[in-house]
Write a structure and sequence with these properties.
The chain is built from 23 helices and 6 strands. The protein is mostly helical. It has 3 domains: 3-125, Alpha Horseshoe (MgtE N-terminal fold); 141-241, Roll (CBS-domain), CATH 3.10.580; 293-444, Tetracycline Repressor, domain 2, CATH 1.10.357. The strands form 2 sheets. Strands 1-2-3 form a 3-stranded mixed β-sheet. A 3-stranded mixed β-sheet has the order 4-5-6. 31% of the residues are buried.
């Protein structure tokens, strides 16, 4: 069955049955599929959405992007709008409140009870790109002196409201994090065992101000499904789950990809973007690169005499510039990826530089030898072959050195390393490679 057919059948299901009947029929349907079906429905979306069970509506809002969250919420009846906030997990509610106007956000918060409203305002005070901005405050905490039996009973009472029950966090009366018990360990332990005997005291936690990229690296490193968030007193503040991190990784990868392609990042989808919006994303960097490429033209003008004397030199300029740009991009891509994964730190600068220089010498030597015999065979001019091949060797060394240096310098200067990617590196390498090329040509071919 095609995806289009499946969506059509789902729309038929939603329109053909009553609200009561849909409660049972939609139990096994994924919220993302319902969202896509609703957005494609050309009929009365408001009537369709209000037929759905409240819990399903909450899950659909959680899956929607910023604009679609507002569409779904605005389509709800006033009574359902008033009930939505209390049904949403705290982190999802904060995400939703950040998409609506401040006035609407204030109205929604006013409908919460006093404690929940305080909690939401507290979460909204955190940096949205830090651990505090990602965490949910619905989690199960247990005590060291509880038995497994008591803990299972507590989990049955509180588990439905928790963001996750894969891990239960052990804290004292001051909420200081003491340990963690996985659900697997809990249900396979004897009912009379004490939590302190089965908990893991070697806890991996993150501070509320840790950057979301650092949090994502911890998830990748340890394979956790959730990580607790603590304040500077090690008091438990919330929990971050893997689904929140998947969204972070998707957004960070998209941002890095667009910056490496000389685009200004936005979270708007391509098909939803206007022509003006897409043009704005591209024109700034293209303008910068166009102006910076003026240096390349000035270098060629400066060595105009060399080009006039040995016209064949011009034929090898594209090869040198393309090879240099590609070599620099290769190095930059590996370094940026290594830093993103936490494999490369600023302190590793000399190790990285030394390694890339050795790689560039080996790669440059092999390519230069092949290029030497190619030119010698085609042009029958040994001095020309030596000139171009030597320039190629130096170009690759320069390109790979710059490709590994610039991202690390950017990191040190608190600039996103992805900015120092292919376009900028290529522009710099183009200028340097031409200077090396024409200088060698002047010396080897004895051009005045």
């Amino acid at each position: 069955m095609s995806q289009h057919t499946a969506k059509y059948d789902l729309i038929q299901l939603l329109t053909s049955y009553s609200s009561i009947q849909l409660r049972e029929l939609l139990e096994d349907i994924q919220p993302i599929d319902l969202l896509e079906a609703i957005l494609e429905y050309e009929g009365d979306k408001k009537a369709l959405i209000n037929k759905l069970p409240l819990g399903m509506i909450v899950e659909i809002i959680n899956e929607a992007d910023s604009d679609d969250k507002i569409i779904i919420y605005n389509a709800l009846s006033l009574s359902k709008q008033s009930m939505i906030p209390s049904k949403m997990a705290s982190d999802e509610l904060v995400d939703f409140l950040e998409t609506v106007s401040p006035e609407i956000a204030t109205q929604i918060i006013s409908k919460l009870n006093k404690d929940d409203a305080f909690e939401i305002r507290k979460l909204m005070g955190y940096d949205p790109e830090a651990a505090g901005g990602l965490m949910a405050t619905e989690f199960v905490t247990i005590k060291e002196n509880q038995t497994v039996w008591e803990t299972i009973h507590q989990l049955q009472k509180e588990g439905k409201q928790a963001e996750t029950t894969n891990y239960l966090y052990v804290s004292d009366d001051q909420k200081v994090l003491k340990g963690v018990v996985s659900l697997h360990v809990l249900v396979t332990s004897d009912f009379n065992e004490i939590i302190s005997d089965i908990m893991n005291e070697n806890i991996i936690s993150v501070p509320v101000n840790m950057d979301q990229e650092e949090v994502a690296r911890l998830f990748q490193r340890y394979g956790f499904t959730s990580i607790p968030v603590v304040d500077h007193h090690k008091r438990l503040q919330g929990v971050i789950t893997y689904d929140d991190i998947l969204a972070v990784l998707r957004d960070e990868n998209t941002e890095d990809f667009e910056k490496m392609a000389a685009l200004i990042y936005t979270d708007e989808e391509y098909l939803d973007s206007s022509i003006i919006g897409l043009s704005k994303k591209r024109i700034t960097w293209l303008l910068f690169l166009m102006i910076s490429a003026t240096f390349t033209g000035l270098i060629i003008q400066h060595f105009e005499q060399a080009l006039t004397s040995v016209v064949i030199l011009a034929a090898f300029i594209p090869m040198l510039m393309d090879t240099g740009g590609n070599a620099g991009s290769q190095a930059a891509t590996l370094i940026i990826r290594g830093m993103a994964l936490g494999e490369i730190q600023i302190k590793d600068f000399l190790k990285v530089f030394y390694k890339e220089v050795r790689v560039s010498i080996l790669v440059g030597f092999v390519l230069s030898i092949i290029n030497f015999f190619r030119i010698l065979f085609m042009e029958q001019d040994i001095l020309l072959a030596i000139t171009v091949s030597s320039a190629l060797m130096f170009t690759i060394i320069i390109a790979k050195s710059i490709g590994c240096i610039l991202p690390i310098i950017a990191k040190q200067l608190k600039i996103d390393p992805a900015v120092m990617a292919a376009p900028i590196i290529t522009t710099i390498v183009d200028a340097l490679s031409l200077m090396v090329y024409f200088t060698l040509a002047t010396l080897i071919l004895q051009i005045n």
